[in-house]
Amino acid sequence: MTHLTLQAVTKRFHTAYAVDHVDLAVPDGKLVCFLGPSGCGKTTLLRIIAGLETPSSGTVAFAGRDLTHVPANQRDFGMVFQSLALFPHMTVAQNIAYPLRLRRVARDTQAARVAELLDLIQLPHMADRPVSRLSGGQRQRVAIARAIASSPKLLLLDEPLSALDAKLREAMQVEIRLLQQRLGITTIMVTHDQREAMTMADEIVVMEKGRIAQVGKPLDIYRNPVSEFVADFIGLGNILPVTLDGPDRIGLPGGQQIIVDAALRTSGAAGDVRLLIRPEDVSMRAAVADPGPNVLAGKVAFIRDVGSSLEATIDCAGFTLTAATTPRETPDLQVGMPIFAELPPHACKLIAARTAH
Ligand code: ADP
Ligand code: MG
Q1: Could you identify the atom of ligand 1 that is nearest to the CA of residue 41?
Q2: Among 201, 204, 265, 274, which residue's Cα sits nearest to residue 237?
Q3: Cβ < 6 Å from ligand 1: which residues?
Q4: What is the value of pTM for the model shown?
Q5: pLDDT tens profile 134-184
Q6: Class (C level, CATH) for 237-352
Q7: Which atom of ligand 1 has the smallest separation from the CA of 190?
Q8: Considering the domain 2-228, what is its CATH architecture?
Q9: Ligand (nearest to CA of 82)
């Protein structure tokens, strides 16, 4: 079942389109991420869904009901902003109870619900602590508990983790995702961090300049991006300008030809074409007895070895490639050494070049 439906939602500020004809269906119980660079319209679209912003045109419907002109406080959605907007002078329990108080929920029902939520966010002993004395991660949990206190049908999160340091942020991603799955609450989360979106989302909506560039499951988008913009934004990628030299043959910037899987040539990839190959698909070998057509000779230019993973930048004739592996798999890599990089035909994707703006 589809709960939230957006049809041709558009928002203009003066003459600029912040959101431009967005059509979207958000399935029940899923976590959907709006992902894109700063200024692409993520927050505006979320605020339109929340009712904090009125679209210039288009409709927002939830469970079959047109909500386009229903005010935010009558939509029954929970929201967490980047700033969290907790009340610093109130205790944890008072913050969580706040939306229940607004709804004039009976006091004992409020207390029971707050106790239940404190257990859920694993802060049962912190009810009476002022939020000003909590750590960043604890505040985060309280903000989420407050947003779900009145059992909203939809949870809206706008970059809720952006103020946290990297380690805590990664831990909270898992925590929020597990909580969302346990509650089965339909959730939309805005982020500009592709790794965060890949970690948390059932579905990612990639946005570019107010429009939807691609919608899909994280790995589908990673493996089959529809455009250079999406390929570049999701994950690390080698993106090279190439020429189409035959049905299964392309020319690299240095002039060498390689074979690609003809079936992978998407219909869109005519005219200006790019080769996309992900770093983990590039394999490195120190010596090759009989280099096949897809083996390129190069030189190691840089090694980023962080212990758990290793990336090597390889200078080839006319272009640079990044290959990713683990330190265990390639123990003898040295900067300056000659190397062979193999690009398997099935991993070579062709995509249409980004159009000039
Ligand atoms: P994101 O959340 O993806 O960073 P926003 O939705 O905040 O993007 O902004 C999208 C575009 O709309 C930006 O160009 C921004 O400057 C513009 N914008 C957002 N809100 C307003 C506003 N209230 N008035 C004028 N322009 C706005
Ligand atoms: Mg924003």
Answers
A1: 6
A2: 274
A3: 13, 18, 36, 38-44
A4: 0.92
A5: 988 899 899 999 999 989 999 999 999 888 888 888 988 998 999 999 999
A6: mainly beta
A7: 2
A8: 3-Layer(aba) Sandwich (3.40)
A9: 2
